[in-house]
Amino acid sequence: MDVLVIGAGVVGLAVARELALRGHGVIVAEATGGIGNGVSSRNSEVIHAGMYYPAGSLRARHCVQGRRMLYTFCGSHGVPHAKCGKLIVATNDLEQAKIEGIYEQGLMNGVEGLSFVTGDEARQLEPNLSCTGAVLSRETGIIDSHALMLALQGDLEAAGGAIAFHAPVQGITRNGTGWNVMVGGDDPTELTVDAVVNAAGLGAQALAGATEVYPAGRVPPLVLAKGNYFGCLGKPAFSRLIYPAPVDGGLGTHVTLDLAGRMRFGPDVEWVEQEEYAVDPHRAEGFYASIRRYWPGLPDGALVADYAGIRPKLTGPGEKAADFMIDGPTEHGLPGLVHLFGIESPGLTSCLSIAEDVAERLAAGT
């Protein structure tokens, strides 16, 4: 097949690579001038183990399988990463019940390396921590996400694929046996391909709406959940990632580390109506309160506004978190078309597994 993949984020690149390795002709259409300039450049760079997601869900399946694939890929391609582990901590009885549920869910999802530790045992691992108990996840890690995307791009191009930058997609129409795609800005070009994969992240719903014959009722809502991050001045207090019990819309204001050992906190959850990435320094007040529940020693004035990202959610505040939505030919009946909606966390961890899934759906439905 000749396939057009829309979006050069981590999922789009992984999908394009997988299709090229299977012998298909692949072009990636990217609206900006580089790879990973959207959701993929504004996350925690965490390799998730897979214990948060409902058993049997796409998120559970692809996170667990994708994490295993990702560690193997990093090892074979020299992508910087570290399996540093993390603690999911409780500071009261209610939170203790929550993390016990996460532990049980992880076992159901087939997550390796999970164990309960008491508050004293957690403090032996991380002396600055304050908690009543914790779940230790040994398989959680961190990754250089840009290096990952460069490695995916390298494999794609070595297999004969290519990326077209500054190539926004304006519309997709059915031509009988394939698809005509209008690509470009002021002077667009029409490409004729056998298959189209929409991996446009925050732009996925708009592109689905611009796809002729794709039922409008299948396009899910796009709900924007902004996540703000704050850096932390001073020497790192932890050697592992520290996560509190989850909150509505996210996993709580947690401690992440980069590969140099620097700490940052976030993301929080700020429901917004439009894309904007400025971090309000005044949100630090809420961060201090959340963080001091498990790190009472956080000094005043240590937090500095860093960056923000937008989660492309399918559900809003107070609603049950939606699963990934991978809408392929078997679901909608149109050969050679896959739309990816709601690929938020753990999308980075899941990218290689999602790529296999998309390739199989295209093969089954063309």
TrEMBL record:
UniProt GO molecular function: (S)-2-hydroxyglutarate dehydrogenase activity
InterPro entries: FAD-dep_OxRdtase, FAD/NAD-bd_sf
Pfam hit, one: DAO
Domain (FAD dependent oxidoreductase): residue spans on this chain: 2-361
Assigned keywords, A-Z: FAD, Flavoprotein, Oxidoreductase
Cofactor needs: FAD
Similarity remark: Belongs to the L2HGDH family.
Protein name, UniProt field: NAD(P)/FAD-dependent oxidoreductase
Organism annotation: Microvirga aerilata
